């Protein structure tokens, strides 16, 4: 019996010895590539210092090896050696070394006991590039090895595979994870700062001094912008046993910042603690309270990515609140939804911070400015206006002068269209929408509006008001395009001097003296008798004259008794002319005389009769082009002789422009008349040229079309030419040179011709679109 018990005791002792000297192998295939290894192998009794698992072309086995520094990290120095700590004493440790590059390495493996004394070492040995076949091994007589270190000469990157150790397994690993406490911030704490000092403790045995603190910031749904920020933490001993401390300054995002501290012990057990810090700039927090808090605006969604202290915003379910320079703004309603829908690549609002509060844009329309443009909400919908158009709109009369957008901006950059930015705007009471577009190379901003800003059409606003086009140079295809209002043009002040400071002597003319030499004549040219001076203006008053001077008009109508002084001076007898009063367009304002509200265009009704029968009477609200003899009417200077009229009298080229329709779509109609007062000539000074623009362009694909009148006689040549696929149409009038007679009274007589002379015709300019879409 004693013999049997002895044998059993010997067997148990052998088994215990076998277990104590167990062999363990780590191949590094156990975890995925890029894993930083610390306590992941705690169950095997081994601990590492943050080295990285990665693939290699020639491992000793499998695919993975362990690098001191990841091969995808650009490093100029390496934190070697590779250190491996064991929970129990080991008899032997061996591994297979390799190279990170193509050069051989000099490697030494050193073994240490629990007190840090060197037990033994292997090396230096040459590690050849290629397969991991260089074996390094350390042994001791007893189980005294508690740590090994592999070091390459010249501060190179150590790489190993298939670590094997034989000896005692650790028997003192913690059974519970460490306890992590975040002491600052406190639960529910708020701050308006851009950074914050996080503090706390980690309690428990065998805590790894390397920990990780993570901060999560809420981002828009689907955003790829970094939401999680990681701070490596070095835990610090300050005295109490099994307690380590941490402090870390973190950068804060707008809104709740979720702070998580993760610590690990030698058993690979993780302890975590989480605290939420509510970070809002103080002005946003104050405005949030003013708006009724989250009860009114809804739950927090995300905040701006800009650091606190710059222009920041916080987005809630039903509103967004921004702060810049201490001032706050709120975005809400349809404008909020549009602002959120216009996203940058990170899913943040691409328009950025608002520049102010939402405002009225006329009627029920609302508008709000942002760093990246403007949003309008009105009956047609809620639409974005880019900065370059918003800036132009502000200079050119605002919403009343340009309109409200009826869609988002579009473009067509194909060479045939070269339209870099395009948008349409609607105004109440104006049938045709305005167009703002940047097109061409070099790029220009074109502002195309029916009636312009309407200021020149006061009292004569009609559905037939024509388009007014302005253009401005742009720096790039998206702006800026510096826009300025037309300069104030001083009125013409030379009329009194040209009339020699006195009126035409009606009394001497009535006396019938054949020797009468008027000083001044009734009409005095301002720029010469035979220079066709051009003018564009809006017709606001048109009527048949109540009376004219029968001595200076070829045709006259009843009542026309024998002239008497009072009747001539007051123009109450012998009517002959059409009198058209026009407000000059910008660029022609200085043709209007001081103390006058218009430039007059005058011609005898007999001369105009054919044009009237064919195309109708002049209509207030039309845009008039006239070129002819530009004169001062010295017959009427006012009480102080400082209100003489300026006139185009007679016009030799006259065009009435209005909005019409073609196939149910807007078109520009220009009725052109050339008469026998035209002096003619082919030189730039003698020829008359003017441009007819199509209506506001309806789409980025629209190109110009026209219906032109044909030639009528050989004496007057009128040509039509489109200056680009987008217009305008240029009209050029020339004729053989022949100057009309000018009488001593300043009256111009028709040129003498033996063949028909003149032209009248209708030009229609419109847009064509692919498939007839416009």
Explain what the structure shows.
It is a single chain. The chain has about 775 residues and is mainly beta. Strand 23 (about 320-325) and strand 24 form a beta hairpin. The protein is elongated.
Largest sheet: 11 strands, antiparallel
The end-to-end distance, rounded to whole angstroms, is 114 Å
Number of strands: 46
Mean pLDDT: 92
- Helix fraction, binned, reads 10-25%
Gross morphology is elongated
Radius of gyration, in Å, reads 46 Å
Indicate the low-confidence ranges by residue numbers.
1-19
Strand fraction band?
Answer: 35-45%
Q: How large is the count of helical segments?
A: 10
Q: How does the helix and strand content classify structurally?
A: mainly beta
List the helices and strands and how they pair.
Elements: H1 2-20, E1 22-26, E2 36-37, E3 46-47, E4 51-55, E5 64-67, E6 82-98, E7 105-112, E8 118-127, E9 134-139, E10 145-152, E11 159-167, E12 179-184, E13 190-191, E14 195-203, E15 210-217, E16 228-234, E17 236-237, E18 243-251, E19 255-264, E20 270-279, H2 282-290, H3 293-297, E21 300-303, E22 312-316, E23 319-324, E24 327-332, H4 333-341, E25 359-360, E26 366-370, E27 373-378, E28 381-385, H5 387-395, H6 398-401, E29 404-405, E30 410-412, E31 419-427, E32 430-439, E33 444-450, E34 467-473, H7 495-498, H8 506-511, E35 523-525, E36 533-544, H9 565-570, E37 577-584, E38 599-604, H10 605-615, E39 623-633, E40 645-662, E41 665-674, E42 688-692, E43 703-707, E44 716-722, E45 729-735, E46 759-768
Parallel strand pairs: 13-20, 38-40
Antiparallel strand pairs: 1-11, 2-4, 3-6, 4-5, 5-11, 6-9, 6-10, 6-11, 7-8, 7-10, 12-14, 14-18, 15-16, 15-19, 17-18, 19-20, 21-22, 22-23, 23-24, 25-26, 26-27, 27-28, 29-31, 30-31, 31-32, 32-33, 33-34, 35-39, 36-37, 36-39, 37-38, 39-40, 40-41, 41-46, 42-45, 43-46, 44-45
């Amino acid at each position: 019996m004693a013999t049997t018990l002895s044998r059993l005791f010997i067997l148990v002792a052998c088994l215990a010895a076998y277990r104590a000297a167990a062999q363990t192998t780590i191949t590094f295939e156990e975890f995925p590539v890029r894993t930083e290894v610390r306590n992941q192998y705690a169950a095997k009794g081994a601990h590492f210092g943050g080295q990285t698992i990665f693939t290699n072309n020639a491992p000793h086995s499998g695919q993975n090896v362990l690098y001191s520094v990841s091969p995808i990290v650009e490093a100029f120095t390496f934190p070697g050696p590779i250190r491996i700590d064991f929970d129990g004493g080991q008899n032997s440790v061996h591994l297979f070394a390799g190279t990170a590059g193509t050069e051989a390495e000099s490697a030494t493996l050193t073994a240490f006991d629990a007190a840090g004394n060197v037990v033994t070492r292997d090396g230096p040995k040459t590690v050849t590039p290629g397969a991991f076949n260089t074996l390094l091994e350390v042994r001791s007589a007893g189980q005294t090895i508690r740590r090994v270190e592999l070091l390459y000469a010249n501060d190179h990157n150590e790489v190993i595979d298939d670590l094997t150790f034989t000896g005692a397994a650790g028997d003192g690993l913690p059974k519970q994870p460490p306890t992590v406490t975040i002491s600052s911030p406190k639960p529910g704490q708020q701050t308006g700062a851009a950074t914050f000092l996080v503090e706390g403790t980690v309690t428990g045995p065998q805590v790894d001094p390397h920990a990780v603190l993570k901060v999560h910031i809420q981002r828009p749904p689907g955003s790829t912008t970094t939401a999680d920020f990681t701070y490596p933490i070095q835990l610090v001993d300050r005295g109490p046993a099994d307690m380590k401390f941490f402090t870390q300054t973190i950068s804060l995002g707008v809104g709740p910042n979720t702070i998580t501290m993760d610590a690990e012990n030698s058993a690979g057990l993780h302890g975590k603690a989480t605290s939420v810090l509510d970070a809002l700039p103080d002005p946003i927090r104050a405005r949030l309270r003013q708006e009724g808090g989250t009860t009114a605006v809804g739950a927090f969604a995300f905040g701006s990515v800009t650091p606190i202290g710059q222009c920041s915003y916080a987005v809630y379910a039903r509103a967004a609140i921004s702060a810049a320079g201490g001032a706050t703004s709120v975005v809400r309603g349809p404008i909020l939804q549009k602002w959120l829908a216009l996203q940058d690549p990170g899913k943040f609002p691409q328009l950025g911070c608002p520049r102010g509060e939402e405002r009225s844009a006329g009627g029920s329309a609302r508008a709000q400015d942002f760093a990246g443009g403007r949003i309008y909400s009105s009956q047609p919908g809620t639409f974005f206006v880019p900065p370059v158009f918003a800036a132009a709109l502000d200079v050119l009369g605002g919403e009343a002068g340009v309109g409200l957008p009826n869609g988002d901006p579009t473009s067509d950059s194909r060479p045939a269209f070269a339209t870099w930015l395009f948008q349409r705007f609607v105004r109440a009471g104006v049938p045709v929408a305005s167009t703002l577009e940047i097109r061409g190379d070099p790029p220009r901003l074109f502002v195309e509006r029916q009636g312009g800003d309407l200021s020149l059409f006061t009292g004569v606003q009609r559905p037939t008001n024509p388009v007014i086009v302005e253009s401005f140079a742009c720096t790039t295809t998206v702006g800026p395009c510096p826009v300025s209002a037309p300069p104030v043009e001083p009125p013409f002040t030379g009329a009194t001097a040209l009339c020699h400071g006195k009126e035409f002597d009606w009394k001497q003319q009535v006396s019938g003296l054949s020797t009468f030499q008027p000083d001044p004549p009734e009409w005095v040219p301002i720029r010469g008798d035979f220079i066709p001076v051009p003018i564009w203006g809006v017709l606001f008053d048109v009527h048949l004259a109540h009376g004219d001077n029968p001595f200076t008009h070829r045709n006259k109508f009843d009542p026309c008794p024998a002239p008497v002084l009072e009747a001539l001076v007051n123009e109450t007898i012998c009517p002959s002319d059409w009198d058209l009063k026009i407000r000059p367009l910008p660029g022609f304002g200085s043709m209007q005389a001081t103390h006058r509200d218009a430039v007059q265009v005058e011609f005898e009704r007999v001369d105009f009769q054919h044009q009237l029968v064919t195309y109708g009477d002049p209509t207030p609200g039309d845009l008039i082009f006239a070129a002819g003899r530009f004169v001062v009417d010295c017959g009427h200077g006012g009480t102080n002789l400082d209100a003489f009229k300026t006139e185009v009298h007679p016009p030799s080229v006259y065009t009435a422009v209005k909005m019409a329709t073609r196939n149910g779509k807007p078109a520009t109609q220009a009725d052109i008349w050339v008469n026998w007062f035209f002096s003619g000539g082919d030189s730039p000074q003698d020829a008359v040229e003017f441009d007819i623009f199509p209506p506001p362009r309806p789409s980025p694909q629209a190109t110009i079309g026209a219906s032109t009148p044909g030639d009528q006689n050989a004496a007057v040549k009128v040509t039509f030419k489109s200056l680009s696929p987008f217009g305008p149409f240029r009209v050029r009038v020339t004729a053989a040179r022949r100057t009309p007679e000018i009488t001593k009274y300043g009256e111009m007589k028709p040129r003498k011709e033996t063949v028909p002379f003149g032209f009248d015709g209708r030009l229609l300019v419109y847009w064509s679109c692919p498939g007839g879409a416009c």
